[in-house]
Here is the input.
Amino acid sequence: MTDIHQQHADSFGAVAAEYDAARPSYPDALFDEIERLAGRPLAGADVLDVGAGTGIATRLLAARGARVVAVEPSAGMAAQLHAVSPGLPLVKATGDELPFHDGTADLITYAQAFHWTDPDRSIPEAIRVLRPGGSLALWWNLKDRDAAWVKAQESRLAATLPSYHYYGTMLNVTGPLDAYDLRLGTAVLHWERTVTVESAITDLRSKSYFAVAEPELRERVLEQERAALLAEFPDGLLREPYRLDLAVATTPTA
Here is the structure.
């Protein structure tokens, strides 16, 4: 991980409350697809949710009946997760070095977090910890760039924020996975949510490229975005369309 990439990865602790308050959740269809591609129900499965953040996905996995442990390296994010969901088991670690025994998990998930790992380390670590026939599920929930207002916002942010980045769908994740003896399945889901403009601004504030920006620049760009969104959605409500890309890689049974 480069120094800049690490700076972005380390920035989330300071915006954990905003992250938990405004980041999107995930539709039920995602977990249906995980079960389909993994070939087993979540209910009763031993799951590690790595890069759990504030526990948005962790809570949904637990609600589906999984025995889930949150794995999160950021003290700030972990504190927010514990404050909101004190009953969830939580381990401070990264996906590059999982502190778990071999063959102890049925499923390892990365909810919008796998890009913070080194695949040359995190994929072998996942394979080590998974039981035979266990699965590694990776997904990214990104605003759908087919919407004109989303594309326009992306252009504005790219022009004003030096470290703005759009990860893109799948992040070529199938490439690193292809080097291993895994059965790979993928799915693409489309969904949307309706939020207030203020919630959308809070969501932006939780992005790493805003968190690492100089405060004066950050506040100026956020104010510009508030004005642009209110011009586009004068009633203060906007529909955010999402494209959710999922990859599930399953280990051999023997």
Observations:
- The mean pLDDT is 92.
- The first strand starts at residue 46 and ends at 50.
- DSSP finds eleven helices and seven strands in the chain.
- The domain at 3-143+167-192+243-250 is CATH 3.40.50.150 (Rossmann fold).
